[in-house]
Amino acid sequence: MREQTMPRSIAVLGATGSVGRQSLEVARRHNIKVELLTAARRVSDAEALCREFSPRVAVMADRGAADALRLALADTDVRVYGGDEAICEAILDSSAEVTVNAILGEAGLAPTLAAVKKGGRLALSNKESLVVAGEIVMAEAKKSRCEIIPVDSEHSAIFQCLHAGDAREVRRIFLTASGGPFRGYTPERLRSVTLAETLAHPTWQMGAKITVDSATLMNKGFEVIEAVRLFDVEASQIEVVVHPESIIHSAVEYIDGATIAQMSTPDMRLCVQYALSYPSRAEGLTPPLDLFKLSRLTFERPDTETFPLLALAFSAASDGGAVPAALNAANEVAVAAFLREQIPFHRIAEVVSDVVSRLSGAASASTLEGILESDREARRLANSIL
Ligand code: NDP
User: Which of 60, 104, 328 to mutate to test the pocket of ligand 1 (most atoms within 8 A of CB)?
Assistant: First the structure.
């Protein structure tokens, strides 16, 4: 039996970011109490959010930023803490019914593990948690009975489509991709693209790092790994489909030949809201689709020669162990260098491929410590190559 499950209170990790802010829009729309709010360094943004949402606790990953925020909020009741461990402690201590993890990058892994340990529901946007240590995260969630509901739009779509049948009846998952701003480019043409062109995503407004990952198709590769872990399917069951209109957010093909797709206007607020309200739906902020205005929907195969990071992610998903973690770590370093305009766009894939091929023993790592060691090693290697 379905129930209305919009939570009374939530914790928003990465509240000052793109998904974090959209989560707060959903909270505002439904009068949901924000118990805990975290960020890293953007003090004035965090201050404004604390003044509006009055969380019991706010944590800044950066201790200096926490000191500044504490001072700025001296006239309020918000308790401010600083440091990475403080984020995990605050999650464990919080009484929020749902934790939304919208932290960027591998920094989101420890908070995911804390939320999983706490149990209850985790609305997971931080895909790196599942890319880096997905096997461990899912095993721990099973033990603590933590319900992980995906926020990433494609995974939210797949999650919704999976309700149309039984897991054993799934034949294939179609993971859709917009193709990014450089769809149709040749490898030669990619050599001269600029940072501004890379950051101009055709359909989604997102943070800078994920926008770059969308342009290299690394983001799609991470989503393949995320889907393998989250839905316990083989990488070979996943078919990436370039769908530039970003209306179908993914689809599931069943053994009887039925394909169930989820469609909507591209809007992360819908994904966050569904992760909060599931199994119910609630009125929200997303304008409905006008099917009469959709002139056509198109689909293409991805070009893995021009965008080799997608193919690399498929093999990393099958290799398992610390290979996906190394892939993610090398990519974080290379993308940061690209955003600083230290390397050109096409070097991102070269650096990442080079690091992953050199870390050949990573597939055998099975513990969190082993995975984190490979992550550090991949970062060292990537920096030395740069
Ligand atoms: P943003 O860069 O916009 O925001 C990141 C948030 O995380 C900010 O609040 C930031 O704080 C905080 N943060 C950054 N570094 C750290 C750290 N070391 N420790 C703790 N907090 C930190 O990212 P997005 O919102 O774009 O993405 C968040 C996650 O959601 C990513 O995993 C991304 O892949 C995923 N995602 C994003 C989508 C989107 O539309 N943006 C779509 C689907 C998935 P501060 O502002 O203070 O620096």
Answer: 104
Say if residue 288 is preceded by a cis peptide, omega within 30 of 0.
Answer: no
**Is residue 1 pLDDT above 70, yes or no?**
no
Residue 264 pLDDT greater than 80, yes or no? yes
CATH of domain 320-386: 1.10.1740.10
Q: Looking at the chain, which residues constitute the CATH 3.40.50.720 domain(s)? A: 9-151
- pTM assigned to the model: 0.94
Q: What's phi and psi for 251, nearest 5 deg?
A: -150, 155
Q: Where in the chain is the domain with CATH 1.10.1740.10?
A: 320-386
Given this model, what pLDDT does residue 383 score?
Answer: 97
Candidates 3.40.50.880, 3.40.50.720, 3.90.180.10, 3.30.1490.20; correct CATH number of 9-151?
3.40.50.720
Instruction: Please return the burial class of 149, using the count of CB atoms within 10 Å of its CB with bins 0-12, 13-18 and 19+.
Output: buried
Q: Angle 337-107-202 (CA atoms, 0-180°, nearest 5)?
A: 55
**Ligand 1 surroundings by CB, under 6 angstroms:** 14-20, 39-42, 61, 102-104, 107, 125-128, 152-153, 204, 206-207, 209-210, 268
| Most distant pair of Cα atoms in the chain: their distance | 62
State pLDDT tens for residues 125-134.
999 999 999 9
Q: Which atom of ligand 1 is nearest to the CA of 20?
A: 25
pLDDT digits (tens, 9 = 90+) for 307-360: 999 999 999 999 999 999 999 999 999 999 999 999 999 999 999 999 999 987
Express each pLDDT in 37-78 by its tens digit. 999 999 999 999 999 999 999 999 999 999 999 999 999 999
Ligand 1 atom closest to the CA of 105, numbered from 1:
32
